[in-house]
Design goal:
disordered N terminus; single chain; mainly alpha
């Protein structure tokens, strides 16, 4: 794909990367990577974008922790977070499921939005911008808050970023303490282990107190969708227009409102690449056939639904029993679904 359709992360972070090792030391990793299913493994673009987002997020959190340390405390790597990221990656402390799911979802959303904009020739979010002038003050304010938050999640190259507030509390806690633990390596040598532990844990606590999920993109998007629903303005035309612009995050929250699901669940189904799961979501949201057809014609292929005829056929043929089964599956506790997946038990 051309960069216009699928922007690759800025390569600046890799300029100082060390030369790759050769020989048998890499063999076990290469063998595992070589035989991964090409249909599910990360593309180079996805890997680049997720890596860039993660590195920036780590740097932002590390800077906040350093700022919360006592005056005069400095670390040898204050000017670069490369060593910090390398230590976190080598120890797999960043391999946190919710964090990885967020990064992958953001990469999917970015790819779909870029593809939709390339097709339309428009590069502005007209739907959201139009809502800023909505007659309802609360809707207008929510749309403006979302636009501003999105703007803060772009770097100077226009690259997508993830904010600390976008993380779940569990992910935020894990990341902050993992970063603090790596920073200890420098401070313990200079200040002593006990003093370093005391200062770093106190700094981590101060950073976590500032964490506010209500300022996260998902929360702001959900708030806007709920306000529109409450005011009777979350209509078919708005949802389809948002789909045309590749606004999958907004579409997912809109469908979540209609289907009485969580936004996270709706987004997972919408971006699943499975025609069965996406059509079940549309049926749960009680979408009319015309809207589904327009959706598939607009961005169906970007969602991995290359056979629009098969997808609409699934939508038409789905029975009420199948819709009810899908609702039951999507509304059970996520821990239950994860346990079934670990046991390799199919959802049925």
């Amino acid at each position: 794909m051309m960069p216009e359709e699928w922007p690759i992360a800025a390569p600046a972070a890799d300029h100082d990367a060390p030369a790759r090792s050769t020989g048998r030391d890499r063999l076990s990793t290469i063998r595992a990577d070589f035989f991964l299913d090409s249909r599910t493994r990360l593309t180079e673009q996805e890997r680049a974008l997720m890596t860039a987002m993660l590195h920036c997020l780590v740097g932002d959190i590390a800077d906040e922790i350093r700022a919360a340390l006592p005056k005069g405390w400095t670390a040898a790597n204050d000017e670069s977070n490369l060593d910090l990221v390398e230590a976190l990656t080598a120890s797999r402390l960043l391999d946190e499921p919710a964090l990885m799911a967020l990064l992958l979802r953001r990469a999917d959303e970015e790819r779909i939005t870029a593809g939709a904009k390339a097709r339309s020739g428009r590069h502005d979010a007209r739907i959201l911008q139009g809502l800023v002038s909505h007659e309802n003050g609360a809707v207008s304010a929510a749309a403006m808050a979302l636009i501003l938050a999105r703007g803060r999640r772009r770097d100077r190259f226009g690259q997508c970023l993830v904010s600390f507030d976008d993380l779940t509390m569990a992910s935020a806690t894990a990341m902050v303490h993992a970063i603090a633990a790596v920073l200890r390596l420098d401070h313990a040598e200079v200040r002593g282990a006990t003093a370093a532990d005391r200062a770093l844990t106190a700094a981590a606590d101060r950073v976590l107190v500032a964490h506010d999920p209500s300022r996260g993109i998902d929360s702001l998007t959900a708030h806007l969708a709920r306000l529109l629903e409450e005011n009777g303005r979350l209509d078919d035309a708005l949802i389809l227009a948002a789909a045309h612009e590749g606004e999958t995050a907004f579409v997912a929250e809109a469908l979540a409102c209609r289907a009485n699901l969580s936004g996270q669940i709706a987004a997972g189904e919408l971006l699943s690449g499975s025609a069965e799961r996406v059509m079940a979501l549309f049926r749960l949201a009680d979408l009319p056939r015309e809207l589904v057809a327009g959706f598939l014609a607009s961005i169906g292929d970007l969602l991995g639904l290359s056979d629009a005829g098969r997808a609409i056929g699934l939508f038409d043929s789905m029975t009420e029993e199948q819709v009810a089964a899908a609702r039951t599956w999507l509304t059970v506790d996520p821990a239950y679904r994860r346990a079934l997946a670990a046991l390799d038990i199919d959802r049925g």
